Amino acid sequence: MNTLSPISSITLEGRDFFIKRDELIDPYLSGNKYRKLYSLLQTPKNKYNKIISYGGTQSNAMLALAAICREKEWEFIYYTQTLSPIVKEQKYGNYYESLYLGMKTIELERSLYKEYISGLRLNLDDKSLLIDQGGADVSAKAGLEVLASELREQLKDEKFSKLKAIATPSGTGTTALYLALSLPEYTVYTTPCIGSVEYLKEQMQAP
Ligand SMILES: *Cc1c(COP(=O)(O)O)cnc(C)c1O
Predict the structure, then answer these.
(1) Which of 175, 188, 196, 200 to mutate to test the pocket of ligand 1 (most atoms within 8 A of CB)?
(2) C-alpha–C-alpha distance, residues 94 and 84, integer Å
(3) What region, left, alpha or beta, does residue 31 occupy, with left being phi > 0 and alpha being psi -120 to 50 degrees?
(4) Fewest Cβ atoms closer than 10 Å to its Cβ: which of 46, 88, 136, 170?
């Protein structure tokens, strides 16, 4: 696994943009998922025997967890709302690939979903780890600090001397928040790709 991802550049309408190519790190842990799940990747196999998570079946975090669990030989249980027959039969995509990697899905009816998910954390034994939707987790801090120090090192190069801002898309906002905290010398911009600005602010303020 090559962790020091390169920086590419692109010129759009006369302006230079630089792109940190984290999607090249691993085929399954694409983009920021490698960073967010960094601590889990460093965790010894014998610490857990089961990882539990939940969310949608298009999730990149789900696929990343499926890949990690396969490598660590951990059971991976994923809760999701009732799936359409189309999703179940598809022979491509994140859900299909995650099943191939050994994920077990448990479908929950829409009306029971929220309550059931809130109850998950109450019934954990010490060999099971619950990871919130999208891989949002305080342990993401460690991996994003690694990204920040990589960036700080790479951006010392003269060609980046005019760089003042960094932009990243947000799901849970975990990446944007920890990146902004770890790189105070840059302005970090983000935009919600799911939900609203309010949802994002709320997430970032969660304890
Ligand atoms: C997971 C993901 C995001 C969102 O990251 P957060 O840390 O949850 O905000 C954005 N873009 C892509 C491609 C992702 O896979």
Answers:
(1) 175
(2) 15
(3) left
(4) 46
pLDDT at res. 3: 67
Q: Residue 158 pLDDT more than 70?
A: yes
Percentage of the chain modeled with pLDDT above 90: 84
pTM for the model stands at 0.90
| Beta-strand pair 15-20/7-12 | antiparallel
pLDDT at 1 > cutoff 70? no
Q: Where are the domains of the chain?
A: 43-135
**Pocket lining: 192 vs ligand 1, CB cutoff 6 Å:** no
Region 70-82 average pLDDT: 97
What does the angle CA 24 – CA 56 – CA 180 come to, to the nearest 5 degrees? 50
Q: Token digits for 14? A: 């006369």
- The conformational region for residue 18 under phi > 0 = left, psi -120 to 50 = alpha, else beta, is beta
Give tens-digit pLDDT for 129-142. Answer: 999 988 777 788 99
Atom 11 of ligand 1, residue of closest alpha carbon: 169
- 169 CA → ligand 1 middle, Å: 6
For residue 88, which amino acid is it?
K
Third-level CATH fold of 43-135: Rossmann fold (3.40.50)
Pocket test for ligand 1, best of 193, 203, 204 (most atoms within 8 A of CB): 193
